[in-house]
Design goal:
Glutaredoxin; seven-stranded mixed sheet; two-stranded parallel ribbon; 8 helices; disordered N terminus; oxidoreductase activity; antioxidant activity; AhpC/TSA; Thioredoxin_domain; Redoxin domain-containing protein
Length: 226
């Protein structure tokens, strides 16, 4: 497929590009064009499954799948994990209502305008570059998940150990090339127009590893479905 490099994340009112990806949770391909004229769709463009924060965001989106479906809104999860590795993971960690696709080359993320951060020692030019001094100063507190506030890197290591997530060669390859990929969720109407977004891009990095509340997401879905 041809690539489109958007200038920053797509915003409400923008027309979403068509993307065609390998399906993980079923056979064949998944194309956004298939949903146009049929139903609104929530598309979550996440990092690879090696990211423990994204695994939790994916599960949260899947948990809303039934409620979204009741409103006539479909849901698609895209991960930067090679398809065989992704299928293996979801075989042992099945999520009801999950429609997922594999995009190890991050074509869809670029098409929707999600940048990939370059990690530097001390130079920050958000959202293109970020210094490790800034990353190490960012605290995340996940009650019930972490033992208290931790910097982002320590929290990721802690959660992977907690989950018993074994990094395989495919994960290591994706982490090496896409660790700085920013994620986003985009709600499209029946005609493929973006109506709502949540991305890690705004607020100078304060949204990193965050996610919208279920209430915010379902409120947006109600507006699109009406």
């Amino acid at each position: 497929m041809s690539e489109r490099h958007a200038d920053g994340p797509l915003q409400p009112g923008d027309r979403a590009p068509n993307i065609v990806l390998d399906a993980i949770t079923r056979e064949g391909k998944i194309a956004l064009e298939d949903f146009r004229g049929q139903s609104p769709i929530l598309i979550g463009l996440f990092r690879g499954l090696h990211c423990p924060f994204c695994r939790r965001h994916i599960a949260a989106q899947a948990q809303l799948g039934a409620a979204l479906h009741e409103k006539g809104v479909e849901s698609l999860t895209v991960v930067n994990t090679p398809i065989e590795r992704a299928r293996l993971y979801f075989r042992y960690h099945p999520l009801p209502n999950l429609l997922a696709a594999s995009d190890p080359d991050r074509v869809s993320h670029r098409a929707f305008g999600l940048p990939t951060l370059e990690f530097t020692d001390h130079e920050t030019e958000w959202p293109r570059k970020v210094g490790m001094d800034v990353i190490m100063s960012m605290q995340v507190d996940m009650p019930g998940e972490t033992s208290g506030p931790m910097n982002r890197l320590a929290a990721a290591e802690y959660l992977n150990k907690k989950d018993g997530y074994e990094m395989m060669e495919a994960d290591q390859r994706m982490a090496a090339t896409g660790q700085g990929q920013l994620f986003g969720q985009f709600l499209l109407d029946r005609e493929g127009i973006v109506r709502w977004t949540f991305t890690e891009v705004p607020e100078g990095g304060q949204r990193m590893f965050g996610a919208p509340s279920p209430q915010e997401l379902m409120s947006a879905a109600s507006q699109v479905a009406s």
